[in-house]
Amino acid sequence: MVHGPCGVINPFSPCMKNRRCTKRYPRDFLKETQTGRDGYPLYRRRRPEDGGFSTVINIRHSEVVVDNK
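== ATP-dependent DNA helicase ==
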């Protein structure tokens, strides 16, 4: 799945409502999974310094399939 760009970079993205991404991007780094105040899970996302991984993947537009079901 590809999401973005949204936020300050693209405030008119379809996911934006009241200047915030409705899909909760960008996500914060967390050392362990937590439950938010609304009951929504906040999954662990480790920083590279804490043992997480980071990578850059370049894709062509022909590799992205739009699925509007």
